[in-house]
Input
Amino acid sequence: MSDTMQKEQQVILCDMCTEEDQKPARKTCMKCEISMCVLHLQAHLTTPVLLQTHPLTEPMTLCGTTKCPLHGKLLEYYCLDDLTCVCVSCAIEDQHRLHNMKTFSTAHNELMEKLDAEQQALQVKTDDENVSLEKWEKSEREKVGRSSVRLIEGVTNLRDIALTSVQSSVSARMVSIKTSKTSMQAAQNEKDNFRFLQMYSQVHQDVEKAKAVDLRKGLQPGTIVTNWSRR
Ligand SMILES: [Zn+2]
Ligand SMILES: [Zn+2]
Ligand SMILES: [Zn+2]
Ligand SMILES: [Zn+2]
Output
């Protein structure tokens, strides 16, 4: 429904037909500013002077858009510098006289070619950008891959260092406990006062060392552990 209404609104009718039987227009004369049906168009198509000086367009509503607002003359040329339609007076006398002026059909062709070229250039640019985007994505993925490999290596190294240090702490403490037991036993078995007192200093050191081992506190950081945990 709205489609047909739109179509009806867009149909340009002949301005020369009687109102009772207005036919659809075939062309619009820019100079006369009227639209004409096939029949009423004949004069424009067969009279040489009209053919030369009355430019025809596809049917359209003109509303005074075909006359130069400055000179009141028919707009016949296109100024490529200002991208605007101008009349003959504009073209030869006024502000456009040094500008790049074309007839409508030449301007249309040239601008179409320009548009095509721009479209192609834009397409090439878009293609290039897509290619470089893909390249960038690939290289970023590779970077992330490489750095995660390094991270995993680093974490594995830290784990190995920690395990080694736990192991060495444990064995060091086992050694010190065993040593203290041995030297305590030796001291307890010593009956001679002097020899007992001579060895006591060492026994005391061994015992203190063994007492320092407190597994409830967790293993005190050994040298290696201290190094990496303080970094
Ligand atoms: Zn007509
Ligand atoms: Zn005309
Ligand atoms: Zn003008
Ligand atoms: Zn101009």
